[in-house]
Amino acid sequence: MPHRFIDALLSADIPVIAEIKARSSEGGDLLAHRSPQDIAARYDRAGAPCLSVVTGRWFGGGPQLLRDVAAATERPILRKDFITRRKHITESVELGASAVLVTAGLLPKATLPSLVSACLGSGLTPFVEVTEQAEVDLVPHPDKCVIAVNNKNIRNRERGGGELDRSLGLLPSLIATGTPCPVSASAIDSPATAARVLDAGFAGLLVGTALMRTTAPEDWVAALREARDSSAGGRTTGEAPHQILGGNP
Ligand SMILES: O=C(O)c1ccccc1NCC(=O)[C@H](O)[C@H](O)COP(=O)(O)O
């Protein structure tokens, strides 16, 4: 089911991809003695349409984290790791992922198209992360991919606060590719920030550290819903902001 991840995100009223990550960029423990299954259940109850699981070792993850989460939720799951080879794609399917991270800036130019094709051929949604225009221009099959702007930088292990302006600046280019699902990822630290990014026209958000640090993800999502409701005045009912911007939903 190649479109399961995208369909779930686009049909959600609060399109947050809620992430499970064992350690923050600075190395701090984020699990805080909770089981991944319990966190997944809390995210389900909060209404997150999709989950993300960081299996990358830099962030304290591993394949078992994804296995545990996949066993505990029906939601489509994004695997966040350094996916560079076909065997990583096969492994991701076996672990229960519906989408996988493809970091455009880390791959040789020739590898990006073959990796995206391999994802699509295996029924996985490519979640292609970009940080600059040159990377946006290289995304193959954009109509079948999530294209996400990462507000941090994986080259420095995502340390620091991130730059939301990067997302806001690249959004028109993302929409112009024809992706049905422009996403902003990383450094979204509060419901107010999340509302601002969705109001700008993103179809989805990826939130890790902020949700892992809150004891009540349902309150975080409820606060985002309220913030969106109070800024909905300028939007036409039923229309996503990226549709208003002239995007291709
Ligand atoms: O971005 C990558 O290339 C990457 C590779 C391998 C493992 C993790 C990777 N990224 C992790 C993230 O981007 C963040 O965990 C995610 O976007 C959430 O960020 P935050 O809300 O700031 O915790």
Automatic annotation (TrEMBL):
Residues 5-220 form the Indole-3-glycerol phosphate synthase domain. InterPro entries: Aldolase_TIM, Indole-3-glycerol_P_synth, Indole-3-glycerol_P_synth_dom, RibuloseP-bd_barrel. It is an enzyme of class 4 (lyase). Pathway: Amino-acid biosynthesis; L-tryptophan biosynthesis; L-tryptophan from chorismate: step 4/5. Its EC number is 4.1.1.48. Keywords: Amino-acid biosynthesis, Aromatic amino acid biosynthesis, Decarboxylase, Lyase, Tryptophan biosynthesis. It catalyses: 1-(2-carboxyphenylamino)-1-deoxy-D-ribulose 5-phosphate + H(+) = (1S,2R)-1-C-(indol-3-yl)glycerol 3-phosphate + CO2 + H2O. Pfam families: IGPS (PF00218). The keyword Amino-acid biosynthesis applies. It comes from the Bacteria. Residues 228-249 are annotated as: Disordered. Coiled coil: none annotated. This is indole-3-glycerol-phosphate synthase. The lineage of its organism: Bacteria, Bacillati, Actinomycetota, Actinomycetes, Streptosporangiales.
